[in-house]
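REVIEWER CHECKLIST
Item 1: Sequence provided? yes
Item 2: Single chain? yes
Item 3: Sequence as submitted:
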Amino acid sequence: MSAEEILVYAVELGKNFCLYFEELECDALCKEKTLHRVLRNVNSQLLVVRPDLNVAAFEDVTDQEMQSGKGMLFSIHCYKTTTPLAGLPVAFTVQVENKSYYMCCERECGKMIVRFKEGEVPKEISGESNFIFFKKTFTSCCSQAFKFEYSMEQGMFLAFEEEGYLRKLILKKLSEDEVDETMKISLCKFSQNENHNL
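Item 4: Structure as written out by the authors:
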């Protein structure tokens, strides 16, 4: 552990003897920009959210289904932070039948589950949040694809798992030196379907 000197200037002594300082930023996440993208897996399938069935899965999508965009076009909310973190903090929302749903993770029966709940993500977040993921480059030689680490559990990443005919969105544990293709996600522009680096 290293000691670091930080020079601060006291501004005033407030009520209840609280000391206030000048030029200090709070440790919070602040929404910086929002991008609109579809999410593709390694098999070029799109992530589709179906809240009525309580499922999110990667699927083969026809051009006609693609044009409807139902449950496929994600808003990726990028946050800036005052503390150094392992990757860009992002949150995901998706529109389905004029309702907005945000992606989050919850523990159920001892296992982490990816859920989509009705609502919006806040502009500022102070403290831990079950809907923040850290965007990281998939591998050093694959800069157009990403993996998304859950902010509250280091080493847990968004991935897909085959369940019958579905490729369900899940959280999966990954060791640092391992490469797992089920975690590889490309962010594509909706209109032209071309890859785009955040």
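Item 5: Key structural point noted by reviewer: The helical segments are 63-68.
Item 6: Recommendation: ____
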